[in-house]
Amino acid sequence: MDLALEILPQVLVDGIVLGFMYALIALGYTMVYGVLEFINFAHSEIFVLGAFVGVEILLFLQSAGQLATLNPAFVLLLIIVAGMVVSGFAAMALERVAYRPLQGSPRLVALISAIGASFFLQDGLRLFESLWRNTFYLTYPTVEILDRTVPLTASLVVPVKSILVVVTALIMLLGLYLFVNHTRVGTAIRAVAQDPDTASLMGVPVNRVIALTFFVGGAMGGLAGVLFGLHYSLVNPYSGFFPGLKAFTAAVLGGIGNIPGAMLGGMVLGLLEAMAGSYLSILTNGAFGAEYKDVFAFVVLILILIFRPRGLLGEKVREERG
Amino acid sequence: MKGSVAPIGVLVYIVVSSVLAYLHPQSVLAFLLFESSLLLIYYLPAQPKMKFILGAMVLLVLLPILGFINAYYLEVAVQVGIYVALALGLNIVVGFVGLLNLGFVAFYAIGAYLWAIFGSPQANEFIAGGFFPLAPYWFFIFLVFSIVVGAMTGVLLGLPVLRLRGDYLAVVTLGFAEVVRALVNNLDKPINFTNGPKGISPIEKPPLFFQPALEFFGAQIAAAKLYPLYFYFLVLFLVLIIIFVTRQLEDSRIGRAWKAIRDDEIAAAAMGIPVVRMKLLGFAVGASFASAVGVLFAAKQVFINPESFTFMESIGVLAMVILGGMGSIPGAILGATGVTILNLQLLKGLSLWLNSVRQSGAVLSLPFLGSFALDQIPVQFEPAKYERMVFGLILIVMMIFRPQGILPPRQDKRN
Q1: Count of CB atoms situated within 10 Å of the CB of B295
Q2: How far apart are CA A122 and CA B361, in angstroms?
Q3: Least Cα separation, residue B265 to chain A (angstroms)
Q4: pLDDT in tens, A81-120
Q5: Beta pairing class for B363-366 and B370-373
Q6: Are residues B165 and A318 in contact, defined by beta-carbon separation less than 8 angstroms?
């Protein structure tokens, strides 16, 4: 038990970082589900795209010899903004190409198209990087300031990159919350989510609101991608699969379609996963260990869907529209 | 007299294409031409009897002969057969019942590991006494047993999740498949059930019970030469059984109930169809097909590891069903054949061609773009590795332009 207590602060820090990451990605799923009632399966690739934009800019700066000389705050801001913008537009383009032609068809048709888009984008990214760099496993160059550590207490040392993730995510989540709840456009998004037909009658340009929702969700995913890359440093076109599915689980856990729910769900899932990763092997005397942490989320997902399908904060799910 | 022209034309086509395939054993194109003769037969405006004879001639006589000469053809045919069987299984779940199962490969994996564990020395790790591997004839017992196990796992997974709405169900089945894969990957400790990522080998093949008979007739064929043919006929037999069962189900009360649920669940429930029980049944039938195919796959491969049972496999089978047409038996067959051949032959052929181009070191001069040394093509660019892109494109394009698939199910005129 001593060991368990000793590592607890570190586990909590890992869990919180992971939780914010999941929360950011989960927003993309939940916002799109809110307005269109379908799972944007390709959101995990939008997330990975953000990570690739970040690494490409950093590698470019490095090869130009500018990485060490430029102000690190400027560099970080640059890659975060670039990642968000590119991912946001990519999500919009995806909606235009793969989903909008399917409006009005059964829900599963759109879902299958989304799965196709996901697979296509994975290999599209691989194709691009293979031709461009002759490898598609990329490593983030070190940004020196991120590897410094800050001692929070005598025994707990936190790297700057973890703080960066938490602070950036907090600012963005707060900004998003204000945007959705206190602006005209945000009201339009909520109106479409509640009832697209009525919203349309009230003069809300539904298609533009949907596109905007994809942009905002995609930008959050792109941000998560850049932060993921900065924190874990290795990216490849397929690294979105597990974070994406876990974030989807987080969205369902919080109550799909519900923005604060996505944040809460992400946090709960991040903490649970960090704990499972560290404590599973201690609890079972090494019989089961961290190798199960990737599927831990699925077990959580199956349990929620059986016992509380509307999630922690969700309202009763609307009836199937067929 | 006009009616007999088409069959003769097809017959000529079959003969010419099989001669071509025989003369050019390396040519992908010749084999493709030969394989598409089946499609021609399907479209042939002739008596079912005539089609049946032509089809039997291609599948039972010509293909085995070609394959006996060139084992690669049989390898492709067996792969195609395995995917056809899987696609037919998924077609029941997705096409008939209308449930999107993204974890279909899990049942396939369960079947494969079932035979792999007991048909190899692996089971000695946790059952003392050195009984394993089981004798080859157990293969057939396991083939039947796997149907039961597959159906049971299908029901076990289905019970809690089938009440969910369609898109949630999709993600949960995907999660289930990943859980199965993680278990297979990691259950080499604390007790070694699956040997983890290292995989299991050697797995017993089915018994060559007919070899004495062959020898009696004076045919001395080495086992190594005989096995590919044997697996070919086993797969063909399995596919025919699956087609038979599926067709029987399609027009039965059960099949009609499935389609009613697919088209309108609430109306189906109102008509007194036990929705959840019917969904469970569909799930179980699909799962049992997949797990029987898994047993065959394990025996054919001799070695299996978790790599064969990834999410991509599930989506690949889904792409086959969608391409051919959800709910259509000929569609599932066509889709599976097309996609498998595309992957096995066209993409691989493109990769090989690209390699040879790269090694030639020639310089290509393009108008406006300048010259380009062909050995500069990045080595990471290998068309054979882009299966996901193919599957993805198939799914998007079909959903947008032709959601009913290439060979949609025929409309039932009795309604």
Answers
A1: 31
A2: 30
A3: 9
A4: 999 999 999 999 999 999 999 988 888 888 999 999 999 9
A5: antiparallel
A6: no
Pairs of residues, one from chain A and one from chain B, whose beta carbons lie less than 8 Å apart = 140
d(CA A230, CA A232): 6
Are the C-beta atoms of residues B122 and B132 closer than 8 Å to each other?
yes
Chain B residue numbers with beta carbons less than 8 Å from the beta carbon of A269 are none
CA B167/CA A248 separation, integer angstroms: 12
Cα B402 off chain centre by: 23
Task: Say which residue the tokens 């692996």 belong to.
Answer: B122
Distance between CA atoms of B206 and B203, rounded to whole angstroms? 10
**B156 in contact with A at a CB cutoff of 8 Å?**
no
Q: What is the pTM of this model?
A: 0.90
Give the distance between the most distant pair of CA atoms in chain B: 74
Select A2-141+153-307's CATH number: 1.10.3470, 1.25.40, 1.10.287, 1.10.10.
Answer: 1.10.3470
Question: Which residues in chain B are contacts of A295 at CB distance < 8 A?
Answer: 175, 178-179, 182
Pairwise CB contact (< 8 Å): B391 & A116: yes
B406 CB burial (10 A radius; 0-12, 13-18, 19+): middle
The CA R_g of chain A, rounded to the nearest whole Å, is 20
Q: Which residues of A touch B168 (CB under 8 A)?
A: 252, 305, 309
Per-residue pLDDT reduced to its tens digit, A152-194: 777 788 889 899 999 999 999 899 989 999 999 999 999 998 8
Say what the ipTM of the complex is.
0.88
Could you identify the residue written with the tokens 């181009």?
B357
Q: Which two tokens stand for residue B255?
A: 């099949």
Q: How far is CA A164 from CA A20, A22, A224, in A?
A: 11, 15, 12
Cβ-nearest to B380 among A130, A287, A302? A130
H or E segment and range at residue A271 = helix A259-283
